[in-house]
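Tokens for chain A. Residues wanted.
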């Protein structure tokens, strides 16, 4: 069974998917398509309400979850140097000391991996370099280029068989990122092996949108669609508080603008 949910914004996609899960609790292959991932649209006051809910449930706030996917704070302060050098060399070692968020190694895996020969590499940097090299060719090799971007050249695998293969729990939930250049915009597809729609998906969507925004900005392209494929989606815990949160978001569209998904 596969269920597709299309929405204009991240909040709308999460609300629709969560309401769907409220009557099921868990399901396979829930796919979200967000057409404007950089915007919360009319729900610009949703983030503070979601954070209040997470405080009551003793969970990490949206921004903290988003930072495990992409260090947007460092990107705003120091640009790519903050992402490629400051975060992995200075911040990540400190983050690892806290067991509560030790699962969130996605951002580190994006910028620090080792090849088969032991040589260190930066997957995100290499991917963006490929994009920059190919973008000028679109005018003369449009058809070839469009076929080429679908061949997996911009894929970033986050599951490491050697490190993660023996884990049954606690391993990376975000398994794969696939970027595409199409229509002058950067599109992103993320695959999750297991996805917590109560406590993690809103922050995951924010972090993915920030990553997508960074790649679009650095390659001088627009921000396209964001697709999230939750191969296993679940919604644990009492349903009442979640229903109340959704109703609060729908009826209280004013207030603070919350977290910005566009990293400038």
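Reply:
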């Amino acid at each position: 069974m596969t269920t597709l949910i299309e929405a204009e914004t991240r909040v709308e996609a999460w609300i629709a998917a969560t309401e769907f899960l409220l009557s099921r609790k868990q399901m396979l292959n829930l796919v979200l398509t967000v057409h404007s991932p950089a915007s919360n649209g009319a729900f610009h006051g949703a983030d503070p309400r979601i954070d209040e809910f997470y405080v009551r449930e003793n969970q990490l706030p949206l921004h903290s979850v988003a930072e495990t996917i992409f260090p947007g704070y460092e990107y705003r302060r120091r640009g790519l140097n903050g992402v490629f050098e400051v975060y992995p060399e200075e911040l990540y070692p400190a983050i690892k000391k806290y067991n509560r968020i030790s699962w969130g190694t996605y951002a580190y895996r994006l910028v620090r991996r080792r090849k088969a020969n032991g040589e260190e590499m930066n997957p995100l940097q290499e991917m963006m370099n490929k994009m920059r090299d190919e973008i000028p060719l679109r005018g003369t090799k449009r058809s070839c280029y469009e076929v080429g971007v679908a061949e997996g050249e911009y894929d970033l695998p986050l599951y490491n068989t050697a490190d993660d293969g023996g884990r049954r729990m606690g391993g990376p939930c975000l398994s794969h990122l696939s970027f595409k250049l199409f229509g002058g915009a950067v599109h992103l597809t993320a695959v999750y092996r297991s996805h917590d729609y109560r406590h993690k998906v809103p922050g995951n969507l924010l972090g993915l949108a920030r990553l997508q925004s960074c790649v679009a900005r650095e390659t001088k392209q627009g921000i396209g669609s964001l697709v999230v494929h939750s191969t296993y989606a679940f919604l644990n815990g009492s349903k009442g508080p979640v229903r109340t949160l959704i109703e609060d978001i729908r009826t209280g569209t004013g207030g603070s603008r919350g977290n910005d998904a566009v990293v400038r």
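The longest helix spans residues 201-218. Confidence is low (pLDDT under 50) at residues 139-154, 161-171.
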